Queue: 2 jobs
Job 1
Amino acid sequence: MNKAQRILSFFILAIAYGCGSGPVLVDAERYDALDLSAYQTFDFFQIDAEDTGTPEFAQNIAYLKKAISQKMETYGLRQTSTNPDLKVNLGIVVEDKVQTRETNLATDPFLYIGQRSYSWKVEEIPVGTYKEGTLTMHVVDNPTGEALWVGTIQRALPKKAKNTPGTIDDVVELLFQKMTKQ
């Protein structure tokens, strides 16, 4: 990403946060806050996610569904596979990312080439890697098949598997806050 793209990205993020969108992205023109008290039951669509090859993948999916179920139950909904009022569809993408930093004069020395000839330029250099997860949650009216609410959130995933449940809990809390406008 060049400097102009970084500035543009920062500007767009500043506008988004200034408008109160927060970490959950929702098309506010299409989806209003959802009154979950108007429904009694829910279930999940089958998750057709590509296994990442990690042994914790299936366990994390199960924990995510459990966290969402518990949150739905706090709104008075119960889970049933027999003709539920709402169905929840989860889209999950996990990507490997490279963390970079920009070189600067204070930390990155000049490169001397020959006698009294030197150069220095701004560059992006890699400093680490991480995994970023994107979760999109669709809440669908089961009888009509219409999406009532769709929200997306991105997060850097914890390196230690023991920290994943806490991240999942945080993400589910943020999704429900945005969905119900708490």
Job 2
Amino acid sequence: MVTPYPSVNVLGTALEPCSRDPLTGYFRDGHCNTCREDTGSHTVCVIMTAEFLAFSKYVGNDLTTPQPQFQFAGLKPGDSWCLCAARFLQAHDEGCAPLVRLQSTHHDALDIVPLEILELYRAPD
């Protein structure tokens, strides 16, 4: 049985929703919840940009092409999405990280991305 970790954000408060349209999250519950089985750590709630989407496609993760077999319509700039923490850190290192919703970013993201880096990309509340 898959047991989600506590729904706490990087600010130490209750994890807020990231997106229900498109429906995101490891559990497809609209939140960036995680668990031991989530080896990709889909924990960083970001707001997609054209630059980041192009970068992601370039490094082998095409998030724009629909995949109907997975009920995935593809992402576009402005969509919110639970991104893998390591991919976010890679985008930061390459200078193309998207904005982050800290209140919707799971605390476990901090195992991979320091809070100081996440704060650099904090989206307006």
